[in-house]
Design goal:
The protein has about 425 residues and is of the alpha+beta class. The protein is built from 15 helices and 16 strands. It folds into two domains: about 250 residues, Bira Bifunctional Protein, Domain 2 (BirA Bifunctional Protein, domain 2, 2-Layer Sandwich); about 90 residues, Anticodon-binding domain (Rossmann fold), CATH 3.40.50. It has an eight-stranded mixed sheet, with helices on both faces.
Length: about 425
């Protein structure tokens, strides 16, 4: 028997209420902050992600789904959303628009990872990007969008972790210091961190292995090595977050797994959660990425949040979501002539804006009304031979169990009022 591929899942009708609720809240918060939707292709030139994410990252080395098409082109299912948005920004000349350009997306993301709760090989992200402005007030706006989005969903007990990892001017000296520190403790590092030390030392700070955490806690802090511009940017951001009444913790171990991040990085996670997949939203600045992809120097910032992980947290916190809308009307019939009349009536009612389910098959009236109850329909219309002769229908209130006979021509008017 065929099953969904490992690391993927079917989103069944009973789960769709959570997804609709999250997506509606996402669209609403973006409208409130004047962000516009963008949709990019599910796959891109593989080079886009190698260049933007970085050859030394786990995503590029181990996790990308890359194929070669019949033309010999290497294509990759997108492993994250930012690079595609930046490619679209450059390709379509968005630098000519009023800056910053404010965009959001809701997209499937693909990474070959070890499946865990809230982490899948195909998952879905809601992401927000603001391109074309260096002002730390924009950093505060992006973080505020993320925070208010979670508040609007009804999630509580969240913590905002904040850090600055500097820029191309000040980061090299910090990385040299970081390498020197870890070189003194090489034997204590896990195999992954030993491999990362030369190529991507920032990632050592993010390691969740028990042997590496104490070393990361005592490691040199990036905020102590910031240049004047980065230090001033971070100071202003802290002030703006205070003005917005957004509580935060400066976490010197906070880095991001992609090479393109500069200056501000942040994560939001439920309080007390320490597992690697606890983070529900994360982002930061990527001021050099658009230039790396062939555009003009363009500062930018964004964040993304996994929808599957939000569903898990909504369930964990027992947050109610709107129930699926039940059909307004169920139409039952007895006999072929009544069935044909029912089919015409269904069409008429739907064109008047009512949600209608038509019974199928040749079940008894009792069985049809039992089905009407299971659908949650508020009203049932019953048509039989006698009703056809008289030009009437029986209208049954499914909640009260009361019924009345009305003229066929009055059905739309009566049901539209109920």
């Amino acid at each position: 028997m065929y099953r969904a591929p490992r690391g993927t899942s079917d989103i069944l009708p009973r789960e769709q209420g959570y997804w609709s609720y999250i997506r509606q809240k996402a669209a609403a918060i973006c409208e409130l902050y004047s962000y516009q939707r963008i949709d990019t292709p599910t796959f891109e030139d593989a080079g886009l992600f190698v260049r933007s994410i970085g050859e030394e990252t786990d995503i590029v080395e181990k996790e990308m789904y890359t194929l070669e098409d019949r033309s010999g082109d290497k294509l990759t299912l997108r492993p994250e959303g930012t690079a595609s948005v930046c490619r679209a920004y450059v390709e379509h000349g968005m630098h000519t628009l009023p800056q910053p350009v404010r965009l959001y997306y809701d997209a499937a993301i693909f990474r070959y990872e070890r499946p865990q709760a809230g982490r899948y090989r195909e998952h879905h992200q809601f992401g927000v990007e603001a391109l074309g402005e260096i002002d730390p007030a924009l950093d505060a706006e992006i973080i505020d969008i993320a925070w208010q989005f979670y508040v609007n969903l009804g999630l509580d007990g969240l913590i905002l972790n904040l850090n600055s990892i500097g820029c191309n001017v000040c980061r090299p000296a910090y990385l040299d210091t970081l390498r020197g520190y870890y070189a003194q403790h090489l034997s204590m590092l896990c195999p992954d961190c030993q491999r990362r030390l030369a190529r991507n030392p920032l990632r050592l700070l993010d390691c969740k292995k028990a042997s590496c955490i104490p070393l990361a806690d005592q490691a040199p802090r990036s905020t102590d090595y910031l240049c004047g511009e980065c230090a001033d940017h971070f100071d202003q951001l802290e002030r703006y977050l205070a003005l917005l009444n957004l509580p935060f913790i400066v976490n010197h171990r906070l880095v991001r797994g992609l090479d393109y991040y500069t200056k501000t990085v942040f994560e939001i996670a439920p309080e007390g959660e320490v597992v690697a997949q606890a983070t529900i939203g994360a982002g930061g600045r990527y001021d050099n990425l658009i230039e790396q992809l062939g555009g003009k120097p363009t500062p930018a910032i964004g964040f993304a949040t996994g929808i599957e992980r939000l569903v898990l947290n909504l369930k964990k916190q027992k947050r109610a979501v709107p129930e699926p809308v039940s059909p307004s009307v169920f139409i039952a019939y007895l006999g072929q002539d009544a069935k044909e009349e029912a089919i015409k009536l269904v069409s008429l009612l739907r064109r008047s804006g009512l949600s209608v389910i038509l019974a199928c098959g040749d079940r008894s009236l009792k069985a049809q009304l039992k089905q009407a109850n299971s659908t949650g329909a508020r009203q049932a219309v019953i048509i039989g031979e006698d009703e056809i002769k008289r030009g009437t229908v029986v209208l049954r209130d499914m909640d009260k169990g009361e019924q009345q006979t009305i003229q066929l021509g009055e059905v739309v008017k009566v049901l539209s009022r109920s």
